[in-house]
TrEMBL record:
Keyword list, A-Z: Hydrolase
Name of the protein in its database record: MBL fold metallo-hydrolase
GO molecular function: hydrolase activity
Catalytic activity: 3',5'-cyclic UMP + H2O = UMP + H(+); 3',5'-cyclic CMP + H2O = CMP + H(+)
Length: 279
């Protein structure tokens, strides 16, 4: 596998629904409606090995498969699918993808119950302050899915089979088993919904893709103390590039300044004033 990790020359632009961006030579971010998926792998390498991070919205499998074929060729499939967590907008197309690709799915052990049909997430909390998406959130699917024995718990040592340069980091709060991915070599971070780069509660800001680092989506975050600790943990890594579950990628000084501010003022700027899970 090619181990060149140059990304500073690639500009960050707005990523809207149906648009993708190569944010580094082996990290490709693609927006499906209002959520991002990532393809990790260098398409110029001879091996063409790659991983999918998250599985987007429902009914997007054809789009994801075409995207993968365009990038890696028609005869390739991912070595695995890594889930940052199991909310419907991050696993929406996984069943259809697994019908096409017989590959393992990796998730944190605390997320496994939601991925094996044993537990459901709480319904969205419309009482948090923030915007129309918060108000509509109780209508979003909150049921778990059942991937059976295709889903496997990530190894406790932080390693990911087939991705030797990456480590997974437990970043709970948004969900109990939420994880982020980090590569020390170039300080690339795939943060899932531990924090996001758009105010996800506001439909207006989501449609405009107004970029600003924000805490995890308020309407679906169940443990704010853990969420604060997770943001502080990620800030201590001093990432130079962050791809989040919602919003466009961010890097360098802008990322450092905004993420540090969020970590230091989390209770003020991220935690809702009221809501089922605030206290």
């Amino acid at each position: 596998m090619d181990t060149t990790y140059e990304h500073t020359h690639i500009p960050i632009t707005t990523v809207s629904s149906g648009e993708g961006q190569e944010v580094s030579i082996d990290i490709y971010c693609y927006c499906i409606q209002f959520v991002n998926i990532c393809l990790i792998g260098n398409p110029t390498s001879k091996s063409k090995t790659w991983f999918l991070v998250d599985a987007g919205m429902p009914h997007a499998s054809d789009t994801i498969i075409q995207l993968a074929e365009d990038r890696f060729g028609t005869m390739t499939k991912p070595q695995g699918i890594i889930l940052t967590h199991g909310h419907f907008d991050h696993v929406g197309s996984i069943a259809e993808l697994l019908e096409r690709w017989d590959v393992p799915v990796y998730a944190h052990e605390q997320e496994i119950p939601y991925l094996t049909g044993k537990a459901n997430y709480p319904e969205g909390d419309s009482t948090v302050n923030g915007g129309l998406i918060s108000e509509l959130s109780p209508l979003f699917p909150n049921h778990g899915i059942n991937l059976g024995d295709q889903v496997k718990a990530l190894q406790a040592d932080g390693t990911i089979p087939g991705l030797p340069d990456w480590q997974w980091i437990h970043t709970p709060g948004h969900t109990p088993g939420h994880i982020s991915l980090f590569r020390e070599k170039d300080r690339s971070l795939i943060a899932g919904d531990a924090f996001v780069t758009v105010k996800q509660e506001s439909l207006y800001r989501v449609l405009l893709q107004t970029q600003e680092i924000s805490g995890p989506p308020k309407y679906a975050t169940t443990d704010w103390e853990a969420a604060a600790a997770s943001v502080k943990k990620l800030n201590e890594l001093r990432p130079s590039l962050a791809v989040t579950g919602h919003g466009k990628p961010m890097r360098d000084e802008e990322l450092t300044n905004q993420l540090t501010y969020l970590a230091e003022h989390f209770d003020e700027v991220a935690v809702p004033e009221e809501g089922r899970f605030v206290h």
